[in-house]
Amino acid sequence: MVRGYRTISFEAATLLACFPPLDILAERDARVYDQTRALRQSGGSASYPASVLEALRRQEQRRAHTTWYARLRGDRYAHKRVVSAILPAFEAWMRRKRRVTFRLTQVLTGHGCFGEYLCRIGREATAVCHHCGADQDDAQHTLEACPAWTAERKVLVQQIGRNLSLRAVVSAMLRRESAWEAVVNFCETVMVQKETAGRARERADPARRRRPAGRLHGLQAPVPGAE
Question: Which of 40, 67, 186, 197 is the most buried (most CB within 10 A)?
Fold first, then answer.
């Protein structure tokens, strides 16, 4: 459903996957069950066409999304990079058909081949950008500022505009399929180069390979409270 490092938060993982927390889904299913049972007891299942039952399910799905949205808007979650970028376009995000790739997930969450993240998990001694020398190499630096990716960024800007804040990028991706594809292509092209350069540094410095590495995980095992 979504691929990312195990350090991304539960909220980021579930939101990227469009998969509400299980307590919200359980409440949704319980309400559908109770209402369907009440309808059948009052008039028999033959009295209610499938379209009525489907409308009930859609109503409860919208209610579940409303509950989830309200939870994400709370002070505990709304400041997180992924949550703050997607919340303004929450319903459009939930209706999207395009998949979230591994390297797109890295740029959206900031958990990936970035100096700031690698330093935080002990894989790098500093957060410096190895491609331009900037003090802080994070996802937004890669997306918006690093001069090493000027050519790739120019192609991206042609599709989504000059505002490369994550909120603006997500909004553009959801408006046009071509914009989504442009962002995915940028992430794939740039992150592959960053990963290749990182492996080259590890080969040049064998001590790096002994440092703890971030691992990939599926949706089932995120770390609560991480960004």
Answer: 186
Measured distance CA(126)–CA(116) in Å, rounded:
7
Collapsing DSSP states into helix, strand and coil, what is residue 183? Answer: helix
Of the residues 95, 119, 140, the one at which a domain ends: 95
CA atoms of 212 and 38, how far apart (whole Å)? 55
Q: Note whether 145 and 134 are within 8 A (CB).
A: yes
Phi, psi (degrees; rounded to nearest 5) at 93: -60, -40
Q: Where does residue 23 rank: exposed (0-12), middle (13-18), buried (19+ CB within 10 A)?
A: exposed
Do the beta carbons of residue 7 and residue 224 sit within 8 Å? no
Q: What is the length of the chain?
A: 227
pLDDT tens digits along 168-200: 999 999 999 999 999 999 999 999 999 999 999
Please state, in angstroms and rounded to a whole number, the distance separating the CA atoms of residues 195 and 113: 6
5 strand-pairing partners: 216
Judge whether 212 lies within some domain.
yes
> Is 80 part of any domain?
yes
CA 187 to chain centre: 13
* Rounded CA separation 180/47 (Å): 45
pLDDT digits (tens, 9 = 90+) for 86-113: 999 999 999 998 989 999 999 999 999 9
Q: Please report whether residue 2 resides in a domain.
A: no
- For residue 128, is it within any domain? yes
**Cβ atoms within 10 Å, residue 100:** 17
Q: For residue 116, which phi and psi values (nearest 5 degrees)?
A: -65, -45
> Which residues share a beta bridge with 217?
4
